[in-house]
């Protein structure tokens, strides 16, 4: 296989480095070239794969935040919708993040918002609509003034030379920007979301290059967000991807069904362990003990009184609510006499 | 619709929805009033930018976040009226972050009924006009059912998220500790009922004044007639006819819109409380079943 070393000239010039065999312009499915690291600096830095990929337009909209770990963390909080762009022009986007979690010790950032920026990508050059980017950023700032630009995202499988240029541009806007790729071409049947930070490499004074070091990405939700995402996730199970909002008792029903499922799973595991099919694990056993002990042991009389008083409260409140409603209905009728 | 919510929770962050009948994207407007010029400018710019990137940019409505479902206010009515007047199909989404934190997404879409639109157009909220239009508090808002539809790509992403996210505790819905929420809802309900009773008292005094005035007018007329008869019998010219209406100015009828709104709000509170209670009763019975099984 043809080994390619991927780096690009620095900065501002076109991505045509000296010792770089340019990828064949027509074939988008170039053979995957693994970059052999010339001198691995530290175990955690791994060079990226060079594979020309077509960055396609997508505005990403899911509710989740991504959090990175290892040496550097990038928390992503991605929001807007997935949508395939009709235009043939690829679009990449700009990410905002909530203010300044980028500290030296913690090395984590949280991405909370993003919007897309149109850009033109041809073989030789890349043109980003900077006016548009600035405008959108100003607009977003009006609504949430604590957000700063953290980096940018692109849809596609891998990093191309164009990414380097765009990354340079964003390194002027934000300190040490993050580059995120969202793979909408669904390679390996997964939509992988990866984050990178750039690091310079090469021989100083001669050919300098830029390397993209990957970060690990974690998703972090707020409580209410997670509930919303759970609801949206239900469309995965319906045939035409449509769901309605369910009413009150139905929700309780579905929540208890969920618990029932998990309980069956746990029971199955216990059976398996007992019959010897699965090796017993002490930690799991301890968790099971905790679970069983969580059902509080109350004497039946106490529980009865507690239950009855609660039920009485609720019934009384329902009765009062009904009374109030009939009162206002009556009032309405009287007024219209 | 997979929409972003600006869940600020306090005092309603109003914001605009864009997209077609199915709303696709929300843009936050912050705390600015919808009638603010800067807000309008922001909206126009945002829509232009979105159109540039080929996202649906048609305005479909706006959303507001509230506490405990207290959204039936004059401000909301006015905003929704202006939206609905400009764009026929606009809706207002009411999002309740507190109820959502209890386990189920609380999102409702409302529109003004055509009858109410008529009344708002006339801007005449006197009792006679409202009686003519035959609007009861139930006919003010009509609820539009919400349906969530995702594209395949979104589904793929959701599967990804499901894999990556930890199996977190998703069981707030089954928690039995809900009396706090109930207490606060009842408190709000009581406040509203107080307001309503004050309003009723005002209306009653108005009615009483009107009837008293009628009586006075009647008496005055009678006295006049008697005097005239006496004068005629004595041969003097009758007293000139005075304009009765100028003597007895009719009292101002109190505006009925407020009471309609309050009644609507009370109705919403009651509905929410009843729903909530139904859920809680179910949960209590489940707990009872579990405990019985234990014993």
TrEMBL record, chain A:
GO terms for cellular component: eukaryotic 43S preinitiation complex; eukaryotic 48S preinitiation complex; eukaryotic translation initiation factor 3 complex, eIF3m. Pfam families: JAB (PF01398), MitMem_reg (PF13012). Residues 64-202 form the MPN domain. One of its GO terms (molecular function) is identical protein binding. Residues 1-74 are annotated as: Disordered. It is found in: Cytoplasm. Keywords: Cytoplasm, Initiation factor, Protein biosynthesis. PROSITE patterns: MPN (PS50249). Transmembrane segments: none annotated. Residues 30-42, 48-74 have a biased composition (Low complexity). GO terms for biological process: formation of cytoplasmic translation initiation complex; IRES-dependent viral translational initiation. CDD domains: MPN_eIF3f. Component of the eukaryotic translation initiation factor 3 (eIF-3) complex, which is composed of 13 subunits: EIF3A, EIF3B, EIF3C, EIF3D, EIF3E, EIF3F, EIF3G, EIF3H, EIF3I, EIF3J, EIF3K, EIF3L and EIF3M. Belongs to the eIF-3 subunit F family. Deubiquitinates activated NOTCH1, promoting its nuclear import, thereby acting as a positive regulator of Notch signaling. This is Eukaryotic translation initiation factor 3 subunit F.
TrEMBL record, chain B:
Residues 1-32, 214-256 are annotated as: Disordered. GO terms for molecular function: metallopeptidase activity; translation initiation factor activity. One of its GO terms (biological process) is formation of cytoplasmic translation initiation complex. Coiled coil: none annotated. InterPro entries: eIF3h, eIF3h_C, JAMM/MPN+_dom, JAMM_MPN+_peptidase_M67A. Residues 11-21, 214-232 have a biased composition (Low complexity). It is found in: Cytoplasm. Component of the eukaryotic translation initiation factor 3 (eIF-3) complex, which is involved in protein synthesis of a specialized repertoire of mRNAs and, together with other initiation factors, stimulates binding of mRNA and methionyl-tRNAi to the 40S ribosome. The eIF-3 complex specifically targets and initiates translation of a subset of mRNAs involved in cell proliferation. Keywords: Cytoplasm, Initiation factor, Protein biosynthesis. This is Eukaryotic translation initiation factor 3 subunit H. Belongs to the eIF-3 subunit H family. Residues 1-115 form the JAB1/MPN/MOV34 metalloenzyme domain. It holds the Pfam family eIF3h_C. Transmembrane segments: none annotated. Signal peptide: none annotated.
């Amino acid at each position: 296989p043809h080994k390619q070393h991927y780096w690009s000239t620095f900065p501002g010039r076109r991505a045509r480095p000296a010792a770089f065999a340019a990828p064949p312009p027509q074939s988008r499915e170039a053979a995957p070239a693994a970059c052999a690291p010339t001198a691995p600096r530290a175990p955690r830095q791994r060079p990226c794969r060079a594979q020309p990929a077509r960055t396609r337009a997508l505005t990403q909209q899911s509710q989740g935040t991504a959090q990175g770990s290892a040496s550097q963390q990038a928390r992503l909080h991605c929001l807007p919708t997935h949508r395939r762009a009709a235009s043939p022009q690829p679009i990449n986007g700009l990410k905002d993040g909530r203010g300044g979690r980028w500290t030296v010790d913690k090395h984590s950032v949280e991405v909370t918002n993003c919007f897309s920026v149109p850009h033109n990508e041809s073989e030789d050059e890349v043109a980003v609509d900077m006016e548009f980017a600035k405008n959108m950023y100003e607009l977003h700032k009006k609504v949430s003034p604590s957000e700063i630009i953290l980096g940018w995202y692109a849809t596609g499988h891998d990093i191309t030379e164009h990414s380097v240029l765009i990354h340079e541009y964003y390194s002027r806007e934000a300190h040490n920007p993050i580059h995120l790729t969202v793979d909408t071409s669904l390679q390996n049947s997964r939509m992988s979301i990866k984050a990178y930070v750039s690091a310079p490499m090469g021989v100083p004074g001669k050919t300098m290059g830029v390397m993209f070091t990957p970060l690990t990405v974690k998703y972090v939700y707020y409580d209410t967000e997670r509930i919303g995402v759970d609801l949206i996730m239900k469309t995965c199970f319906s045939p035409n991807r449509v769901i309605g909002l369910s009413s009150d008792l139905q929700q309780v029903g579905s929540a208890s069904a969920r618990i029932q499922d998990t309980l069956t799973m746990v029971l199955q595991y216990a059976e398996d362990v007992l019959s010897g099919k699965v090796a017993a694990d002490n930690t799991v056993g301890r968790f099971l003990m905790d679970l069983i002990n969580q059902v509080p042991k109350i004497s039946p009389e106490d529980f009865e009184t507690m239950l009855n008083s609660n039920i009485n409260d609720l019934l009384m409140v329902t009765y009062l609510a009904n009374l109030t409603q009939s009162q206002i209905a009556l009032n309405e009728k009287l007024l219209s006499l | 619709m997979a929409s972003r919510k600006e869940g600020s929770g306090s005092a309603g962050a109003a914001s605009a929805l864009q997209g077609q009948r199915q709303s696709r994207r929300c843009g936050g407007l912050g705390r600015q009033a919808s009638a603010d010029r800067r807000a309008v400018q922001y909206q126009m710019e945002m829509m232009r930018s979105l159109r540039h990137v080929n996202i649906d940019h048609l305005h479909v409505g706006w959303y507001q976040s509230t506490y405990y479902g207290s959204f039936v206010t004059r401000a909301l009515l006015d905003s929704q009226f202006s939206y609905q007047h400009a764009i026929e199909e606009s809706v207002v989404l009411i999002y309740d972050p507190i109820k959502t934190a209890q386990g189920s997404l609380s999102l409702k879409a409302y529109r003004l009924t055509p009858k109410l639109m008529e009344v708002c157009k006339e801007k005449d909220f006197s009792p006679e006009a409202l009686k003519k239009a035959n609007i009861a508090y139930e006919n003010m808002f009509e609820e539009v059912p919400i349906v969530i539809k995702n594209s395949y790509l979104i589904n793929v992403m959701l599967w990804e998220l499901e894999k990556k996210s930890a199996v977190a505790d998703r069981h707030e819905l089954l928690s039995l500790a809900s009396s706090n929420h109930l207490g606060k809802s009842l408190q709000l309900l009581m406040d509203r009922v107080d307001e309503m009773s004050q309003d009723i008292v005002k209306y009653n005094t108005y009615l009483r004044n009107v009837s008293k005035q009628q009586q006075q007018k009647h008496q005055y007329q009678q006295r006049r007639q008697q005097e005239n008869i006496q004068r005629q019998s004595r041969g003097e010219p009758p007293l000139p006819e005075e304009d009765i209406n100028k003597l007895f100015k009719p009292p101002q009828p109190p505006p009925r819109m407020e009471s309609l709104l309050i009644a609507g709000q009370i109705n919403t509170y009651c509905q929410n409380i009843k729903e909530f209670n139904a859920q809680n009763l179910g949960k209590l019975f489940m707990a009872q079943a579990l405990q019985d099984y234990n014993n």
